[in-house]
């Protein structure tokens, strides 16, 4: 099983239910989302490949046929959070990051 | 090929229709049109002439413009009259001496008002009612008069009486026949109409033959009647019918009917093969058609003949439906039951002033005609049944009996109509035409109306157009489904009703009980907007923050590079020099690109997320509050300086605009709202292009609704005239809250209005007559929004938990390194990265 070195970037409570924040991690901008008031969290690249700006963490969270998605705040393309796939354009996929909520902290992982 | 030169004599409604039809024809390039108008302006809507007295301007009435004619190469000359036709040389000469040759001549000279030969008819203050100049004369005369009489109780006469009534005169109608609208109505209908009109304060005198007009004893004139009675008045308007304007044709030997009118055939050709006649000057089979719809059909036939088509004029139905002094009146077909053996059914309701009569054939299988007073809802159905000779129900009376509770309405569905059935008589649109348009993609009422023109004339057929649309969509297998999205099987209006009746306060609670899944970018902001309209809670609270879209979630407008623009409220565009200085200092300090907006305020661009709180800190300290530029909510109330400074201002438009902006600020609505207040009809605030527009008059405020600039401009509709401040605010409260309740998501008021069954008249009945009995409730809901207003930025600055979100990184004070600016015209401006740069900084992994 893949092993990760986990780094805490913020507290779970720093993220309002069903919203996102952006963390600086490994010199990359990572958009982190929290589903409802749960510990279910996702991490994808913060860069919007359509709008070409670092804004995805500010998008709206919803579901599309069962998958949790974020809609870009610029031009509303939707991305599946678990794998980064774009609903509107299957040739586009966001990078995803290992993430966990651990003892009330949000941690991003680097493969060890 | 040489262009054929077409001269159109007369630029009235029908003359213009002919020109417009030819412009729209695919072979238009082969023609050159020259048109003359003896009036000082191009074609205007004579049918709506009376609206001039309720606040419409000449511009509102115009049917075309110089620009439109220029654009299509139509040459036009106003204020000049054709006085000579040389048929052999095919030349005309005008009063100013201009000579022009033609290939084809079209006479669209219209008609003139008939003034009976009564001694005294030529005195001052004895007027007629046909042109805008006539209206101006009537207005001028009214200012020196207290009492006004209209001679003639026909359709135009009653409209004119309405005008006098609106000009605050004591109005009388004098009619020669035993009843009003004798041509269109039977005795019963005429009586009910008389009664209703008298109730409104207009006196009706039937069976009066005016013998002479002499000097009055108490007023300016006395009218002596043949029966020995008399009536004193200050002014008289003659509206005793029209006569065809056939003088030219008469002089130059075209065939004229015995009682006037230029004789035409089915192609609208006169006795000269190169001269057409259309409209009220034309006589077809010994009949003059004094309505606009038949004139339009003639224009169509004439254009068709000219261009080698085969559309003929074969007479026209003279059925009419209109509102006279607020009373609905309709007449269809053989209203007088003159057909041999005709039978009638009558429904009469004295309590509500409703009279309905239908005329059927002796076999009771076909409808021949009808008269409707007070309730004309059945007009469309009855007209179609008459024209299409459709089979009658076994008991024809069900067609006019009121639908009692629980009973299905007896009216036949649109599915029963053949495709040839005419739905819109103003623009001659058949059911088949509508079906074609629907199949071509006009699948909502607004777009169907705009592409087919159906329902855009008198508007009487709008409900039927809607029924055809729904029936057709159903047939096409399109599920007529106005569900908000896959998470809620309810329309926005239904959700609003649920939230209101069940007093639901959060999205999660609504979703749990009435929806499924987690919601999406469609339903979340829509429900967020409804909750905010109804409860007006802080939009960034834990319960609501997840619903806020791009701009609302950070209370600022996101720009293309992810930075924001900031707009403080500058109510009505009024700002002190000190506040301007404060804005200048803040803009300079944060290096913000600064621009004046179209809504008379100031917009700062290029603020990064972490800069928003300190910028607002300073703005609030300088006395500003949020401008809601980010919200689907009231933006600005634009104003001119009004009577405070302007030499022409009638009322204090700035104070009114400030009051309105302060009242409705923060109201979340289905889409953004803009208002304007102008201090006089010069309209410097462009109020008629706003959702709510207000124009000062010498008697109060005129209220306009549902205008729009933007992608699809829409001129606002005049909703009410001469209102005092309190009534104005009451109406706006009700209209806005009714809009918030019933519009679709992201539907501007203009589209809301275009899609409203019953249109402006319906909105008036809800707001002014309180037909749905919700007026008080709407006002109460608005009062709650007004009372619970708070500045969202002030609240946010006092909430440390929320402020955490205003940073690019949650775990670092660093900022977004991708932002790039360059200086231009002395300011910083966002720079769009070049393609090469894109490649360098691409961080997207693409499979």
Question: Greatest interface and its residue counts?
Answer: A-B, 47 and 38 residues
Number of helices of chain A: 0
**The CATH homologous superfamily of the largest domain in chain B:** FAD/NAD(P)-binding domain
What is the overall silhouette of chain A?
globular
Structural class of chain B: alpha/beta
CATH architecture of the largest domain in chain B: 3-Layer(bba) Sandwich
How would you spell out the order of helices and strands of chain A?
EEEEEEEEEEE
Seen as an oligomer or otherwise, the chain set is: heterodimer
Helix content of chain B: 25-40%
- State the end-to-end distance of chain B: 61 Å
Total of domains of chain B = 6
Mean pLDDT of chain A: 94
Mean pLDDT of chain B: 89
**Weakly predicted, low-confidence segments of chain A:** none
Describe the structure in your own words:
The complex is a heterodimer of chains A (112) and B (847). Chain A has 112 residues and is an all-beta fold. Chain A has one domain (16-97): 3-layer Sandwich (Rieske Iron-sulfur Protein). In chain A, 0% of the residues lie in helices and 48% in strands. Chain A has strands at 4-11, 20-25, 28-34, 41-45, 47-48, 53-54, 60-64, 67-71, 78-80, 99-102, 105-111. In chain A, the strands form four sheets. Chain A has a three-stranded antiparallel beta sheet with strand order 1-11-10, with no helix packed on it. Chain A has a three-stranded antiparallel beta sheet with strand order 2-3-4, with no helix packed on it. Chain B is of the alpha/beta class. Chain B folds into six domains: 4-112 and 244-306, FAD/NAD(P)-binding domain (3-Layer(bba) Sandwich); 126-240, FAD/NAD(P)-binding domain (3-Layer(bba) Sandwich), CATH 3.50.50.60; 425-480, Arc Repressor Mutant, subunit A (Orthogonal Bundle); 492-547, no CATH class; 552-631, Alpha-Beta Complex (Sulfite Reductase Hemoprotein, domain 2), CATH 3.90.480; 634-784, Sulfite Reductase Hemoprotein, domain 1 (2-Layer Sandwich), CATH 3.30.413. In chain B, the strands form eleven sheets. Chain B has a five-stranded parallel beta sheet. In chain B, strands 9-16-10-11-12 form a five-stranded parallel beta sheet. In chain B, helix 10 (431-439) crosses helix 12 (462-475). The longest helix of chain B has 18 residues, at 725-742. Chain B starts with a strand and ends in a 6-residue tail after the last helix. The A-B interface holds A 9-10, 14-19, 21-25, 28-29, 32, 35-36, 45, 47, 49, 51-55, 58-64, 66, 68-69, 71, 73-74, 76, 78, 84, 91-95 and B 487, 517-521, 523-525, 542, 545-546, 548-550, 553-554, 558, 560-562, 804-805, 808-812, 814, 816, 818, 833, 838, 843-847.
């Amino acid at each position: 099983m893949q092993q990760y070195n986990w780094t805490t970037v913020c507290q779970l409570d720093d993220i309002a239910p069903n919203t996102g924040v952006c963390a600086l991690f490994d010199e990359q901008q990572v958009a982190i989302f929290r589903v409802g008031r749960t510990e279910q969290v996702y991490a994808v690249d913060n860069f919007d490949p359509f709008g070409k700006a670092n804004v995805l963490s500010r998008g709206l969270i919803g579901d599309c046929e069962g998958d949790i998605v974020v809609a870009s705040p610029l031009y509303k393309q939707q991305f599946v959070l678990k794998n980064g796939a774009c609903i509107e354009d299957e040739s586009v996929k966001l990078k995803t990051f290992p993430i966990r909520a651990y003892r009330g902290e949000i941690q991003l992982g680097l493969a060890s | 090929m040489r262009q054929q030169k077409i001269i159109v004599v007369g630029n009235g409604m029908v003359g213009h229709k002919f020109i417009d039809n030819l412009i729209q024809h695919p072979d238009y390039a082969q023609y050159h049109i020259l048109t003359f108008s003896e009036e000082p302006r191009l074609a205007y809507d004579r049918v709506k002439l009376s609206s001039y007295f309720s606040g419409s301007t000449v511009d509102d009435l115009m049917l075309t413009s110089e620009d439109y004619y220029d654009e299509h190469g139509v040459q036009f000359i106003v204020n000049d009259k054709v006085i000579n036709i040389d048929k052999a040389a095919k030349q005309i000469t005008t009063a100013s001496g201009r000579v022009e040759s033609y290939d084809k001549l079209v006479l669209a000279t219209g008609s003139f008002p008939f003034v009976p030969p009564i001694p005294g008819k030529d005195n001052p203050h004895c007027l007629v009612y046909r042109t805008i100049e006539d209206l101006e004369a009537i207005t001028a005369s009214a200012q020196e008069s207290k009492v006004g009489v209209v001679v003639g109780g026909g359709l135009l006469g009653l409209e004119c009486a309405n005008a006098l009534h609106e000009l605050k005169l004591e109005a009388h109608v004098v009619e020669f026949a035993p009843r009003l609208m004798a041509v269109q109505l039977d005795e019963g209908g005429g009586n009910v109409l008389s009664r209703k009109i008298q109730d409104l304060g207009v006196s009706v005198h039937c069976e009066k033959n005016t013998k002479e007009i002499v000097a009055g004893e108490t007023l300016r004139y006395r009218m002596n009647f043949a029966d020995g009675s008399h009536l004193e008045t200050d002014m008289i308007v003659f509206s005793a019918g029209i006569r065809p304007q056939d003088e030219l044709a008469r002089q130059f030997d075209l065939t004229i009917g015995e009682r006037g009118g230029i004789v035409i055939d089915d192609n609208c050709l006169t006795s000269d093969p190169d001269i057409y006649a259309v409209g009220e000057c034309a006589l077809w089979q010994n009949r003059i058609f004094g309505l606009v719809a038949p004139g339009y059909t003639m224009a169509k036939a004439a254009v068709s003949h000219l261009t080698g088509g085969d559309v003929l004029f074969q007479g026209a139905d003279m059925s009419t439906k209109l509102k006279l002094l607020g009373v609905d009146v309709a007449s269809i077909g053989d209203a007088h039951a003159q057909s041999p053996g005709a039978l009638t059914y009558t429904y009469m309701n004295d309590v509500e002033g409703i009279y309905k009569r239908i005329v059927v054939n002796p076999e009771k299988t076909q409808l021949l005609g009808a008269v409707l007073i007070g309730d004309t809802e059945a007009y469309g159905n009855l007209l179609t049944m008459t024209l299409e000779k459709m089979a009658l129900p076994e008991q024809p009376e069900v067609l006019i009996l009121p639908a009692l509770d629980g009973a299905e309405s007896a009216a036949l569905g649109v599915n029963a109509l053949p495709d040839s059935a005419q739905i819109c008589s103003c623009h001659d649109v058949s059911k088949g035409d509508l079906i074609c348009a629907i199949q071509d993609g006009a699948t909502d009422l607004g777009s169907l109306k705009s592409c087919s023109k159906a329902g855009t004339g008198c508007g009487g057929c709008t409900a039927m157009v809607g029924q055809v649309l729904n029936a057709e969509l159903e047939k096409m297998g399109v599920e007529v489904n106005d569900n908000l999205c896959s998470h809620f099987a309810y329309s926005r209006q239904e959700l609003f009703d649920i939230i209101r009746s069940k007093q639901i306060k959060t999205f999660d609670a609504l979703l749990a009980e009435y929806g499924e899944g987690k919601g999406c970018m469609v339903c979340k902001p829509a429900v967020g907007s409804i909750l905010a309209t109804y409860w007006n809670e802080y939009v960034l609270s834990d319960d609501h923050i997840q619903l806020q879209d791009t701009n609302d979630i950070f209370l600022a407008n996101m720009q293309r590079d992810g930075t924001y623009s900031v707009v403080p409220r500058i109510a009505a565009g009024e700002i002190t020099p000190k506040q301007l200085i404060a804005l200048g200092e803040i803009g300079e300090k944060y290096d913000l690109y600064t621009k004046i907006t179209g809504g008379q305020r100031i917009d700062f661009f290029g603020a990064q997320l972490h800069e928003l709180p300190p910028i607002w800190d300073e703005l609030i300290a300088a006395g500003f509050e949020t401008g809601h530029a980010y919200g689907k909510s009231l933006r600005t109330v634009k104003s001119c300086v009004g009577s405070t400074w302007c030499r022409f201002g009638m009322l204090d438009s700035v104070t009114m605009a400030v009051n309105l902006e302060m009242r409705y600020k923060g109201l979340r609505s289905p889409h953004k709202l803009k208002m304007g207040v102008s201090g006089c009809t010069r309209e410097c605030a462009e109020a008629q292009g706003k959702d709510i527009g207000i124009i000062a008059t010498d008697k109060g405020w005129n209220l306009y609704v549902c205008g729009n600039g933007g992608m699809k401009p829409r001129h606002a509709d005049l909703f009410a005239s001469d209102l005092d401040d309190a009534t104005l605010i009451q109406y706006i409260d009700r209209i806005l809250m009714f809009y918030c309740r019933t519009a679709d998501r992201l539907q501007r008021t203009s589209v809301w209005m275009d899609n409203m069954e019953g249109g402006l008249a319906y909105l008036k009945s809800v707001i002014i007559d309180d037909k749905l009995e919700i007026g008080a409730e709407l006002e109460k809901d608005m009062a709650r929004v007004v009372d619970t207003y708070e500045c969202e930025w002030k609240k946010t600055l006092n909430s440390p938990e929320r402020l955490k979100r205003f940073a690019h990184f949650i775990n670092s004070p660093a900022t977004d390194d991708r932002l790039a600016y360059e200086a231009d015209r002395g300011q910083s401006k966002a720079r769009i990265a070049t393609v090469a740069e894109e490649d360098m900084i691409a961080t997207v992994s693409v499979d």
